[in-house]
Amino acid sequence: MMDRYGCRPLTMALGGFILAPAFALMATTQVSPLALCMMVGVGFALVPSALWASIPLIVKENMVGTAFGMMSALQNFGLFMMPLIVGQLRQTSGSYTTACMIFATLSAVSCVSALVLIRVDSQGMQSVLGLPSGAVRCYSHPPDDDDDDEALLRPRDFSGRGERDWN
Q: What's the maximum distance between 2 C-alpha atoms anywhere in the chain?
């Protein structure tokens, strides 16, 4: 969907906007866990799909693999640490309320970060992240000329319709 419709930063913000109240309601109310788990599922589907689809658009072509590797490493570190933190909080407090509130706070921070990204994208990056992939002409270094500052102004074509034109 990101490739077809774009709107990556807005999708990230929407995911954070869905996740924050879902986790806060889990912590503070007796609302049906089924509905809240569905909200969490939708939020967790939106944020990563937009985030991972953004990497090739904002990273130099010769560094895309490294960027994906770093994202994977950070994600795995979080997947390793959060159960330990949640387990310690559960053991200390006797409930999952604190953990849910931490998740709600992190979701709100992600929503605000995505809103900042919308502003940065629209002002400094020619709305590259907001466009469908077929319409994106990302401004970055060509793979053969990393030291040329003028290369920042040369478009990269991600449309998949042919060879890139570096002239």
A: 64
CB neighbour list of residue 166: distance below 8 Å, 6 or more residues apart: 142, 154
Q: Which residues of 100-113 are buried (b: 16+ CB within 10 A; e: fewer)?
A: bbbbbebbbebbee
Complete DSSP assignment for 132-160: -GGG-EEE---TT-TT-GGGGGSEEE-SS
For the segment 16-44, what is each residue's pLDDT rounded down to a tens digit? 999 999 999 999 988 888 999 999 999 99
Nearby residues of 124 by Cβ (< 8 Å), 6 or more positions away: none
Please report, as a single letter, which amino acid is at residue 137.
R
Residues 6+ positions from 111 with CB-CB distance below 8 Å: 12, 13, 15, 16, 17, 19, 20
CA 54 to centroid of chain Cα atoms = 7
- What is the rounded distance in angstroms from the CA atom of residue 154 to the CA atom of residue 150? 7
Q: Are 159 and 30 in contact (CB under 8 A)?
A: no
- Alpha helix locations (H) across 29-131? 33-58, 64-93, 97-124
Please tell me what DSSP assigns to residue 31: -
The pTM is what?
A: 0.70
Residues 84-97: tens digit of each pLDDT:
999 999 999 988 88
